[in-house]
Predict the 3D structure of the following.
Amino acid sequence: MQLTDSHGRNINYLRLSVTDRCNMRCFYCMPKEGIVNKGHHAILSYEELLLVAEAAVGLGIEKIRITGGEPLVRSGIVAFLEKLSGIPGLRHLVLTTNGLLLERMAADLFKAGVQRLNVSLDSLHADTFAEITRGGDLNKVLAGLEAAEQAGFPPPKINVVIMRGVNDAEILDFAEMTLVRGNSVRFIEYMPAVKEDDWQRYCIAGDEILERIAGRYTLEQMDKGRYAGPSRDFRIPGAQGSIGIITAVSGHFCSDCNRIRVTSTGQAKGCLFSDEKTDLLPFLRPPDREGLTRVLQGIVSGKPERHGISQDGYVHKNFTMSQVGG
Ligand code: SAM
Ligand code: SF4
């Protein structure tokens, strides 16, 4: 069954956040002191998350990405993923992680039925990595990448948030990873999440990233996959991995959006940047499957046509990416 919103977009992808906690403090995502974690009761239980996933798949969602916060810090995550992967009709179960715990968890994640991993990695230099993540250990993430492949995963897709003056000198190094290591790399434009007056100084448009890569390599544009969503994908001839660009801020983005989101506290959102959210708790406590399906259908129908972020006109709202799930 195809799920279509009122702007004709096929919605096949749910980003499901399982926690707002994290074991890193990336400066673009969280304040230094972290965020006030929601109490245990405010966070959806695994049973409740499963109800949400089942309702979404029943409606026509085919791909679920587990995100957070850092999904691997939530205890019991592997058993939950195993249940999730058994939902009939779910074609793709994927997970985004910062990779810190991957070395010891990769084999269990693979056995649980996770099909693909995205690992966020913003620098290949230990000091820059520690600066961006406020203390993260690059070597642990690199060991996690190795462990994932040894466990049987395809080379993880690398998510890189490119920021001018911080890690933009590494654009070509990341592009080379698609040739040398076979990982696909996705460059994400820096988005204003944590409140910062002068946030535009970090922004590098996707087109500039592509131009810099094209200065050294030929880039072939790839056909859009069914689940690609807003990413524009390219390949250096001969490379095993692809190069993707997510131009959330500079544009060319919303018309291809294929996703909805549910936060770890049960707030459903049609758009990452919209203030509008719908509380799913009344349909979870106690469980009301029909009501849940109806309300998720409403999120899809009411999905806004586009977000209001642009480098010039956006009035900064302080929202925490770790709570929404990126
Ligand atoms: N902790 C996991 C991780 O870092 O991969 C999953 C959650 S994280 C919120 C999901 C994605 O959002 C990461 O790839 C991260 O780089 C991205 N993200 C967070 N804040 C961002 C921002 N301000 N601009 C662009 N991307 C951001
Ligand atoms: Fe944590 Fe991911 Fe946010 Fe970094 S981007 S602080 S790893 S949730």
Notes: The two ends are 27 Å apart (CA to CA). Residues 46-59 form the longest helix (14 residues). The CA atoms of residues 195 and 318 lie 5 Å apart. The chain is about 30% helix and 15% strand.
